[in-house]
Write a structure and sequence with these properties.
Order of helices and strands of chain A: HHHHEHEHHHHEEHEHHHHHH
Structural class of chain A: mainly alpha
Largest sheet of chain A: 2 strands, antiparallel
Radius of gyration of chain A: 34 Å
Distance between the termini of chain A: 70 Å
CATH architecture of the largest domain in chain A: Orthogonal Bundle
CATH superfamily of the largest domain in chain A: Cytochrome c-like domain
Strand order of the largest sheet of chain A: 2-3
CATH topology of the largest domain in chain B: Sulfite Oxidase, Chain A, domain 2
Strand content of chain A: under 5%
Radius of gyration of chain B: 24 Å
Strand content of chain B: 25-35%
CATH class of the largest domain in chain B: Alpha Beta
Largest interface: A-B, 106 and 115 residues
Number of helices of chain B: 7
Helix content of chain B: 10-25%
Shape of chain B: globular
CATH superfamily of the largest domain in chain B: Oxidoreductase, molybdopterin-binding domain
Number of domains of chain A: 3
Number of helices of chain A: 16
Largest sheet of chain B: 5 strands, mixed
Oligomer: heterodimer
Chain lengths: 421, 423
């Protein structure tokens, strides 16, 4: 702890308190008067250097005496008895919990280590990987692993790590191939995690390697050759060195006065410039650097020109509420002008249209059957579908648990109705 | 029911006129008697709502702006995203659960206590499965800790970006947790099989679709890590991992795995996606830092701030803020009103808990002149919170995480505050 006088107040610990008592200070409230008298006292002590040795011995004895006295007082007051304690641990344990079974371990203990331990039997080639990738991954990551929108880029970016805007991909940044296999196996595809077979995962990883020009198009990845793949950035990581680079220099007594000659504002908040198109209903955009910022908890009702037909008689507030509720759908579905198919189809002009008829979208079997039967989207069947997608359309690819709140369902339908073709 | 508490429009207008007059005249005198005092008000005459009206209470509707907020352009989808605690509008140190920031990688899930299972496996004497009620039978502890996302203030690396303490510093919350020390569970499973513990790890994993997993050195796992099932006295909220989450004091929020389902003792770090491709720090030299777990000392003035302008004019002003350190206690906070030329030591609300938020105050007299407000935290190791330039000198501008720089708010003559950078 620092020895600077202005630091004493917060720093008063047990020992300092005793010393404080020795100097006749009984309170933490240090007034100017106290500081002055302390300074006078210090000067006095310095002037009487010849007596210093004797004083020091006397002082030490006095500290000892006061320490004992303090302890005695604390004991009397009962404050010295601290009954708090960490949770106890007993030898041999408490015998709580049951043994995990082999099949349970097999189901959950599936993480893969950098040295390849944990990989299951299996194989997959680049060609198969491309097919699986386009089917299951490309709606977010792009056909060539280039990333769509804000979704992660998986390929390229070599030699950019020292640049202003580094591109961190599986190829350019990831130190271990095991990370890709492990993550894809357990956490992908987004919304359908845990559904890939081992062979599909090997194939997808092989394709990502190919997208990064790290293997040829006839490459096949398997457990046997997995650790032979050399990662571009395997040597690009060092362990946290803040203790050497930062802590060593920043554990110093900071400046308090005249720390720099002048201060100028070099940059003002400019969030408006970095807000991308489409992010337009963020509360941040309502703030201004000129006037007092205005923050609203919820965005205003949409007025982006997409509302055309079918809105007569529908409560605008309900449509607005539906737009809010639709945010959970945006992960997979686009609406409005310029909307394209993503994980799910475009939903423009959905009500009154035959099911499964959006151009260019690969529908599941159950929707293909509905198309063949000429089933049309109505408010009723859409409500049922939103409440329980897999219950109503068993086999649908839509990996969404359903909307529980009936008011949200009504709002979503009103919102979808408000969107024209 | 609300009508009982709703002032009539007439009395409301009279009331605000009186407040406006009071502002002009200053605190010392009023131009006329305040009708809020001299006239009988509805709420002083009619009865209010009964005790059976609200079995679980929410904040009164006048506080409806004190909510978490999202910055949409940050992420591709709200299901894999983050929102921000309204720290500008909170006081004290404890964050109410309902407005504590959320970070999900595959959305918040509903997992019942009955469906909860926690597996301890790997290099243990006997792999075990615990149910929720098993956890309730083991000795538990209570601790207040902050949980800060490693990306908090991350958008500010390149420059002053977002106007509000909520957005620059709101990826943090501070709660009192109740839970079982992780060491207790590890000892139930037995660590003889692990041999020398000094180079062993635990890999912790969640039950949601993201299967978020992180490796933690055994030393930390046996130290202060908690398997928590309550926060601020009540069950965890769904968005914070109900029914059970991991609490890793002082370390980045991504390690605080929610919906905890598995703890595996390993002989090496797993190198999961979240500890290689993410939550690593790429420096200017093109070399990335890994295992940067600790959240260094940091502070921010929550009021005044862009969302909390000074509305009362010159005179007595309370400057209020938060400080914290993953290395232990906050021992001191300094505040500057001139952009770092001179500093005054702030008053701490109370002696700081270790690895928990500390409230600080500078009780000052505002001249009405513009200010460049800054705060600077110092922790028990003597570490002094750095300026943004100090950080940039070491790391460059490519880093995303662990930005603990000194924040500057420019406050103009009208009391309006703005996020700025200074020389």
């Amino acid at each position: 702890m620092s020895k600077s006088p202005n630091l004493l107040v917060p720093a008063l610990g047990g020992a300092a308190l005793v010393l404080g008592l020795a100097y006749g200070i009984s309170s933490r409230e240090y007034g100017a008067e106290t500081i002055n008298s302390l300074q006078a006292r210090v000067e006095q002590v310095e002037a009487n250097a010849a007596l210093a040795s004797a004083n020091a011995q006397q002082g030490a004895a006095e500290v000892d005496r006061l320490q004992s006295e303090l302890e005695a007082v604390q004991l009397t007051a009962g404050t010295a008895t601290d009954l708090t304690a960490p949770a106890p641990v007993i030898d041999g344990g408490y015998g709580i919990g049951r043994l995990a079974l082999e099949e349970e371990l097999a189901a959950w203990n599936v993480d893969v280590l950098p040295d390849g331990r944990g990989l299951p039997e299996g194989r997959g080639d680049v060609f198969t990987g491309e097919e699986v990738f386009v089917e299951k991954c490309a709606s977010c990551h792009g056909d060539f692993a280039e990333g769509i929108g804000n979704w992660p880029v998986l390929a390229g970016g070599f030699d950019t790590l020292g640049n202003k805007d580094p591109v961190k991909t599986v190829g350019s940044y990831w130190p271990y191939l095991s990370t890709a296999w492990d993550y894809i196996n357990r956490s992908m595809p987004f919304g359908e995690a845990g559904t890939l077979t081992a062979d599909e995962t090997y194939a997808i990883v092989a394709y990502i390697l190919y997208s990064n020009d790290m293997v040829d198009d006839d490459f096949e990845l398997s457990r046997d050759n997995f650790t032979d793949v050399e990662m571009y950035n395997s040597e690009g990581f060092v362990v946290d060195d803040r203790p050497e680079l930062e802590y060593a220099q920043w554990r110093t007594e900071p400046c308090m006065i005249d720390c720099k000659p002048s201060v100028e504002i070099t940059m003002r908040a400019t969030f408006l410039d970095v807000t991308p198109e489409g992010g337009g209903d963020s509360v941040m955009n309502e703030a201004s650097t000129d006037d007092s910022p205005v923050f609203a908890a919820t965005s205003d009702a949409a007025d982006d020109g997409t509302a055309e037909s079918n809105t007569a008689g529908v409560d605008p507030a309900l449509i607005a509420a539906g737009e809010g509720a639709f945010r959970q759908c945006k992960t997979c579905h686009e609406v409005g002008e310029g909307a394209t198919n993503r994980t799910g189809p475009v939903l423009n002009g959905m009500l009154g249209r035959t099911m499964g008829t959006v151009d260019g979208f690969r529908y599941s079997g159950v929707f293909q059957e509905a198309t063949a039967a000429g089933t049309v989207w109505t408010e009723e069947n859409l409500a049922a579908f939103l409440a329980d997608p897999r219950g109503m359309m068993a086999g649908t690819k839509m990996s969404f648990r359903g909307v529980r709140d009936e008011a949200d369902i009504a709002a979503l339908i009103a919102y979808l109705q408000s969107i024209g073709d | 029911m609300d009508d009982f508490f709703k002032p009539s429009r007439r009395s409301f207008l009279r009331g605000s006129a009186a407040i406006a007059a009071g502002t002009v005249a200053g605190a010392a005198s009023a131009e006329g008697a305040d009708p809020l005092i001299t006239e009988l008000q509805d709420w002083a005459s009619y009865t209010g709502v009964g005790v059976d009206e609200t079995p679980y209470g929410m904040p009164i509707r006048f506080e409806s702006d004190v909510v978490r907020r999202n910055v949409e352009w940050l992420t591709a989808s709200p299901i894999s995203s983050i929102n921000f605690t309204p720290i500008h509008a909170l006081e004290g140190t404890i964050t109410p659960q309902g407005c504590a920031f959320e970070r999900h990688h595959s959305g918040a899930i509903e997992l019942t206590k009955d469906d909860f299972r926690l597996m301890i496996n790997g290099l243990v004497d006997k792999p075990l499965v615990f149910s929720y009620s098993d956890l309730e039978r083991l000795p538990r502890e209570n601790h207040v800790y902050f949980c800060e996302c490693a990306a908090n203030t991350g958008m500010e690396w390149a420059g002053a970006q977002l106007n509000g303490a909520q957005f620059t510093h709101g990826m943090i919350h501070n709660m009192e947790y109740t839970g079982v020390p992780l060491r207790t569970l590890l000892r139930e499973a037995g660590l003889e099989a692990a041999g020398d513990l000094s180079d062993k790890w635990v890999y912790v994993e969640g039950a949601d679709a993201s299967s978020n997993g992180r490796s933690i050195p055994m030393e930390k796992a046996l130290d202060d890590v908690l398997v928590a099932f309550k926060a601020n006295g009540e069950a965890l909220r769904m968005e914070h991992g109900y029914p059970v989450r991991l609490v890793v004091p002082g370390w980045e929020g991504n390690l605080w795995v929610k919906w905890l389902r598995r703890v595996e003792v390993t002989d090496m770090a797993v190198g999961s996606r979240e500890e290689t491709s993410k939550y690593t720090d790429l420096y200017e030299d093109g070399i990335a830092r890994k295992w940067t777990w600790v959240m260094d000392a940091k502070s921010v003035i929550t009021s005044p701030s862009p969302q909390m302008p000074i509305t009362h004019g010159a005179g007595p002003l309370v400057i209020s803020g938060l400080a914290w350190s993953g290395h232990g206690q906050i021992t001191r906070v300094d505040v500057s009103k001139d952009g770092g030329i001179t500093w005054e030591t702030a008053r701490l609300g109370k002696q700081g808990d270790t690895k928990a938020l500390t409230r600080f105050y500078l009780d000052t007299d505002w001249t009405g002149d513009p200010m460049l407000l800054q705060s600077r935290a110092i922790d028990e190791t003597g570490y002094v919170q750095p300026t943004k330039n100090q950080l940039r000198d070491v790391r460059g501008e490519n880093a995303v995480y662990h930005n603990n720089c000194i924040q500057t708010w420019f406050v103009n003559e009208e009391g309006i505050a703005e996020n700025v950078e200074v020389s």
